[in-house]
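chain below, 424 aa
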Amino acid sequence: MTQAVATASARIDALIDARADTDRRYFGAEAGRLAELCHRMAERFARGGRLIALGVSPQARSDARHVAVEFVHPVIVGKRALPALAVTAEGGPLLDQLELAVEPGDTVMAFEGGESAAAVRASRERGCLTVAFESAGAEWQLEPDGVEGEHRPPSQPDGVEGGHRPPSQPPMGAFVRQELAEAPYHLLWELVHVFFDHRGLLEGRDAKAVHDTGGSRFLYPFLGEEETDLNAVLSDVRESVLMKAEEIAHLRGQTLVESRAVLTEAADALRARLDAGGRLLALGNGGSATDAMDAVADMRMPPFPWPARRALDLTEDAAILTAIANDIGTDALFSRQVIAHGREQDSLLAFSTSGNSGNVISALAEARRRGMHTIAMVGYDGGRVAGERLADQVVVTRSEHIPRVQEAQASAWHVLRELVEEAP
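prediction:
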């Protein structure tokens, strides 16, 4: 092992340990509140309310869109579709948009301060339930303690006219804070559904008969509770949060340990291409599309004073995507754009939870034909992407639980992004 590889390996170990410690402290402190918030959000949804997610900075916009797609298009069998919208800077000032869009029964969620904080305050005054992962004056503040730095690029205002770049900070701070927003909103999405099975625990709803859950009680003990016993269900949901938090930390660590050499190799190759004038093209479907969106944001507007890097998000133009899907088919969504934009000196980053998405495989194949460098982050057993070695470097997160895969992939990307700039 060379000194450079050993240094990178040690750095990855430090990042793993820091994330595990932060996860443990955060979820240990917030599990009870997350359970209660699930109940409050379920009450809002049951009365016809919606989830409105806010985003101004590029990174926050990726989170807002990730929340919306998770709630509207549930990927777990049996979960109902719930109404959610991403209200982001592309549509104009947030306050102007919310004046037309928000209703008193809605839940409003923010991922940053500044303009989002003003929107949160206005929504709270209107009667909305408000949630924030940064200091924004929300009713439910879920910002992590002990992780320095707000994930705010330099163009994002922060109360000073014109805005400014936040002070220098360890890059891990911004990345971990974002990861500590993604995991809780995944858990809110997964566990809010528990309360729909207990109508008597939702304000204004009638209780229904409690059925014998039989063998299911071992896995989901709260299904057998009386519908009038809110504390018992909240306690079970809290325990579920803690169990899932352990799974999150374990899978993140496992992904980073098993992919240590792959991430180092990918960072070296990507850095060489970028330094030579190349660009990073990123893509994915659904929640993975928002991961691609975040990756491009971290390249163009890094949360630490690194150089801005050239990057293209192949998921962001709805006109291009719908034109290709309508006229050619969904398998060509990304390969058609690789034909248009891909150059030999560029890199392609693909996110896929299954490793089998046809449009991802087609894009990787087209990139290879053009001599591009390719990186893939996949879940399950790696699917075709890993099995057929369709990318130069493949990071595999060994889980079939899509939210857990995406959380681990977020950490893997952030580590890769840091290794690009903080080369040994």
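The chain has 13 helices and ten strands. Confidence is low (pLDDT under 50) at residues 149-170, 209-226.
thats it, cya
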